[in-house]
Amino acid sequence: MMKRGGAPRTVSCGVVILDTAGRVFLAHATDTTHWDIPKGQGEPGETPADAALRELLEETGIEFAPARLLDLGRFAYRHDKDLHLFAVQVAEGEIDPARCTCTSLFPSRRDGSMIPEMDAYRWTVPGDVDTYASRSLARLFRTKLSLAELHRRLSGA
User: Fold this and answer.
1) Is the dihedral of CA 16, 102, 36, 76 positive or negative?
2) CA 62 – CA 55 distance, rounded (Å)
3) pLDDT on residue 130
4) Which of 43, 44, 86, 92 has the greatest number of C-beta atoms within 10 Å?
5) What is the pLDDT of residues 58-86, one digit of tens each?
6) Any idea of the CA torsion for 12, 44, 31, 19, to the nearest 10 degrees?
7) Which long-range contacts (CB under 8 A, 24 or more apart) does 37-42 make?
8) DSSP readout, the chain?
């Protein structure tokens, strides 16, 4: 997909994880002030679902069977990026944020040492998402992907 000016839009694939209470799972992006859903760009030959599951595993250590994913489709995210999102509802206690771990590394802006992409994890009630998430993610949840509506869909209500 091309945008005006001819530069291709990048696509990040990610997983929105909700618990039975409707809280969303967020990961803290190292060396930033914001929290995000686990997501990243696909590799050549990867389907969006494969990319989302790989990024989830690399950034959190969480593994899901592909059959658990609900494909939410593609969303405009920023002027240069779209998100292809999937959703999963997890059982009470299925994910313990204290046990999550990130294996994907990048060079620190401070000293160039290799540091994990994500360094903390939390369950967040929808009303607190604006406090933690990046502006782009908070706007997406406010305008295009209601967490309350998604929770109803996943719960089968």
Assistant:
1) negative
2) 10
3) 94
4) 86
5) 999 999 999 999 999 999 999 899 999 99
6) 50
7) 37/85, 37/137, 38/14, 38/62, 38/118, 39/12, 39/13, 39/14, 39/15, 39/83, 39/85, 40/12, 40/13, 40/14, 40/104, 41/10, 41/11, 41/12, 41/13, 42/11, 42/13
8) -B-TTSPBPEEEEEEEEEETT-PEEEEEETTSS-EE-SEEEPPTT--HHHHHHHHHHHHH-----GGG-EEEEEEEEETTEEEEEEEEEE-TTS--GGG-----EEE-TTT--EEESEEEEEEE-GGGHHHHB-HHHHHHHHHT--HHHHHHHHHT-
Q: Is the pLDDT of residue 129 over 60?
A: yes
Residues 6+ apart with CB under 8 A from 109: 31
Find out whether 48 and 70 touch, Cβ atoms under 8 Å: no
Which tokens belong to 103?
């294996």
